[in-house]
Description:
The complex is a heterodimer. Chain A has a single domain (about 20-320), classed as Orthogonal Bundle (ABC transporter involved in vitamin B12 uptake, BtuC). Chain A is about 70% helix and about 0% strand. Chain A contains 16 helices and four strands. Chain A has helices at about 15, 20-40, 45-50, 50-70, 80-95, 100-125, 130-150, 160-165, 175-190, 195-205, 205-210, 215-240, 250-260, 275-295, 300-325, 330-335, and strands spanning about 155, 165-170, 170, 245. In chain A, strand 2 (about 165-170) and strand 3 form a beta hairpin. In chain B, a hairpin with a 2-residue loop joins strand 1 (about 175) and strand 2. In chain B, helix 3 crosses helix 10. Chain B has a two-stranded antiparallel sheet. Chain B has one domain (about 20-335): ABC transporter involved in vitamin B12 uptake, BtuC. Classes of the chains: A mainly alpha, B mainly alpha. The interface of A and B includes residues 124, 150 and 261 of A.
Amino acid sequence: MERTIRVDRPWSWRSFFLQWEWLLVLIFLAVHVVNSLLSPYYFNADTFLQTPMSFLDKAFLVLPMTMVIILGNIDISVGSIVALSAVLMAVAYNAGLPMPLAMALCLAVASACGLLNGILMTRFKELSSVIVTLATMIIYRGIAYAILRDQAAGGFPAWYSALGWDSVGGIPIIVIAFAACAVVFALLLHRTSFGRRIYGMGSNLTASRYSGVRTDAILLTVSVLTGLMAGFTALFLTSRMGSTRPNVAQGYELEVIAMVVLGGVSTSGGKGRMAGPLLAVFIIGFLNYGLGLVNIPAQVLLVILGLLLILSVLVLNLRFRDRHPRTPPATEIAGP
Amino acid sequence: MSGAAPIPVEGTVRRAAPLSESFRELGLLVFILLLCGLFQLGNHNFLTLGNIRDLLTNTAILSILSVGMMMVILTRGIDLSIGSIIALAGMAASMTVSAHRDIHPLLSILEGVAVGTACGALNGLLIARFNVLPIIATLGLMNVIRGGTYLLSGGAWVSSYQMSDGFKAIATGKLLGVSYPILIAVAINLAFVYFIDHTRTGRRIYAVGSNPDAADVSGIPRRRIIWLVYTIMGALSGLGGVIWAAKFASAQSDSAVGFELSVIAATVLGGVSIAGGSGKVSGLVLGTILLGILNNALPLIQVSPFWQMAIQGAVILAAVLTNVLVKRNNQRSALQRRVI
């Protein structure tokens, strides 16, 4: 059914331009054209440098979620992990823990949450990732509520809020951090055996296991990475907001999954590249910003996001179905 | 996937349920009784007729929806959009009532059901016809419908004074001392027992869930069954939406946010397997009642409502894991029997 071996097809203009990412580039440009038409103040360098500050916090989650979805899984607990780790960081800081340690605690808690997801998924293979993360999603946010009730916690030192608001050499810190993470994740996925094995597991888990891939270890690693990135999101989100509540990051899972799927990653696993979701982050981010410029309520964005999610899955399904029946000639399978 | 579930399809052959499965329901019942005892010790007003009636009335909507969710989960699906459908159907029905006060309550119910059916059919179309994963399709529609509710109402509420007494009576009215929501829930559960256990279509739902390929090969219209299941889920959500609006005497665009989680929890607690194809109505009813107790009675024994979510999550996880362990145990003992 699915081909797990990389096939080197002869390069052609047609196949080069028929890639999903080009469509995304077109959409990206279209968003900017529309935004510039909507507002005369839109098109300047400041917009492009400063706007990403407002939407890059959740973009950290897109990186591991791409891996999760290529694995054929899904993780809907990420928003809750963000909330729980942010709440614990704030409570620990207010209880007297120095801020750097509180930040480390935030990352550690988030990674631990991811690890717990991973352990549940590897120990109970009968369960789909949907139901495991659904349960932990309720538990994590539930704990956040139990700790902080309906209060907000904040009062962070000034240097901490600089993390989300300041720039180094004209480039916002959050952009630099995100770029670094994106490069690391792209290299992990496309240039290491770890990444190749993720694709293998997504295409055929059983075959991967039988060919000696330590599937559990890879699943655990991806889960911990997901948690860790949720921790980064919590750090930057809290820094930008100045305080935190148990209901922060609600619905992030939808936005993140929508970005990944819009980026051309197939929900049936094994297909997709890191470039697509990265483009999708900026498409949705700037779209959101543009809608804000003309005072369109956030609920409309919800509708657009939901429609985008469904439409891109529809288009991707049709696209892959067309390609499906073609069996590769024997010479192609030899591969690298 | 090894299907250990009992799947009598389209025939009269019926295997006796494995012992551990009835044991599971017995366990659930014992747990409910223990919990009731515990609550009674903590608060002497727990086991009074009035409180039990309140508790059941509050659980009625959950019960109606968990019937639909059971069918969805039987086919290996999931529906996250029901909270939004509740809001949309409730809002549509309430807005009509506020514009035409003398409209008959039955027509309001019909309107809500129609709105819900349309939403459910859309879910089914995406999932059955276009092969969109259930979680993706319903996650997307959840937001589209929620946003649609907001656009429909313009962000405004429909409040109690705008609703006719007849409309509010959908939730508050009583027949022989039993409130309408309880009656509706009981009727739907009874109809469901007949449908899922005694009609051809009902048995086909099990067949589709326990082995889709085998269902295809044996000529079961799998896609049509899946479509039907989501449509019924939508219709029940629409009904639930009208009762919801009547019960709280207000319709808001953020009604029932997150209610899908409670419904899924009740269904999974009731022993409906997430892997599809197995689950019984008796278990479902027990699971719903257990979740109803957890949702409504914690404040009675001075457990902070802020703990409710964490407790609910932990109970879901425990139920799902127990399910897996029981199933593994079943398979192991079946294997041992085969060897000897």
